[in-house]
Design a protein that fits this description.
The chain is α+β, with helices and mostly antiparallel strands. It folds into 3 domains: 56 residues, 3-methyladenine DNA Glycosylase II, Chain A, domain 3 (Orthogonal Bundle), CATH 1.10.15; 65 residues, no CATH class; 116 residues, TATA-Binding Protein (2-Layer Sandwich). The strands form 2 sheets. A 5-stranded antiparallel beta sheet has the order 5-9-8-7-6. A 4-stranded antiparallel beta sheet has the order 1-2-3-4, covered by helices on one side. Helix 4 runs parallel beside helix 6, helix 6 packs across helix 9 and helix 7 runs parallel beside helix 9. The radius of gyration is 21 Å and the shape is globular. The protein starts with 9 loop residues before the first helix and ends with a helix.
């Protein structure tokens, strides 16, 4: 059996780039340059500071992997598909419905949306997505944000909180959401509810009290029209109970995002909160 090819990753490039963010390549950071080389086809020789042997290695590796990438083909197809869904959208009519900003593009090239994803802002056009804070992002994020635009909103939020398992079509996704979101957050903050409160403040959460023994109860908005209510119960080691997290959604959530994208949004929340822990 042939050995599976190892594909270049962003960190492979970052390790041998100068990491001085000189901008001579045309990108704002070395991270952005590496991202575009691997995901958008930017030429590696745009950086003038490679060691010759490193540039030769990168070019050979890119040639060897050809049309392969670190992402499955279906992900590129998904991005292309959802871009096609919004190609005729009038962003000026979409912005208010999904709670995002609207800006004009230079030279009269239309408009773009400014979307707040977990307190990180992205400029979304019909053809590309860029981080305004130069944070690392990838095709998964692109598909998520384009799907949020494509759903185009719906009913106003009604303040009725429901769990994942009550949403239509969630049966096959419930376990993935529990392990990829709720359990990861619980593990990251086990024994430290105060740290969870501090991290949630970074995400502009509003805290409240409920008639339960939850140590933390808060609402935050991963996307402008998609609130998450998070409940955290700390571990009771003496009783053999691990820390637990429960996420609830506004009953209108599927007006704003499909179920698969909602699961991924939960995973993004867990990733963001784990980094803040």
């Amino acid at each position: 059996m042939a050995e599976k090819k190892r594909l270049l990753q962003i960190l492979d490039l970052i390790k041998i780039l100068p990491r001085n963010n000189c901008k001579e390549c045309g990108f704002t950071t070395c991270m952005a340059f590496a991202t575009h080389v691997l995901r958008e086809g930017a030429k590696p020789e745009l950086c003038p500071y490679w060691q010759p042997q490193d540039l030769a290695f990168i070019k050979k590796s890119l040639k060897d992997q050809g049309n392969d990438s670190a992402y499955p083909d279906h992900l590129f197809s998904a991005r292309k598909f959802v871009q096609g869904k919004i190609k005729d959208y009038d962003f000026s009519q979409v912005a208010d419905r999904i709670g995002v900003g609207l800006e004009s593009l230079p030279d009269g090239e239309g408009s773009c949306l400014i979307i707040n994803l977990l307190e990180q802002h992205f400029r979304v056009t019909k053809y590309e997505i860029k981080s305004l804070e130069n944070v690392e992002h990838d095709l998964w994020d692109h598909v998520l944000l384009y799907n949020y635009v494509a759903e185009n909103g719906g009913r106003p939020l009604i303040g009725e909180w429901v769990p994942m398992e009550s949403l239509p079509g969630s049966l096959a996704k419930r376990k993935v959401f529990v392990t990829g979101c709720e359990e990861k957050i619980a593990a990251a903050y086990s024994g430290n509810p105060e740290r969870l409160r501090a991290s949630l403040k970074v995400l502009k959460a509003d805290f409240f009290t409920i008639d339960s023994n939850a140590e933390v109860a808060a609402v935050f908005y991963p996307l402008p029209k998609i609130p998450f209510q998070i409940l955290f119960w700390d571990a009771a080691i003496e009783d053999g109970f691990p820390a637990q997290v429960k996420i609830l959604f506004d009953a209108t959530v599927l007006d704003y995002l499909d179920i698969e994208s909602l699961v991924f949004l939960g995973e993004k929340c867990a990733e963001r909160l784990s980094k803040l822990a």
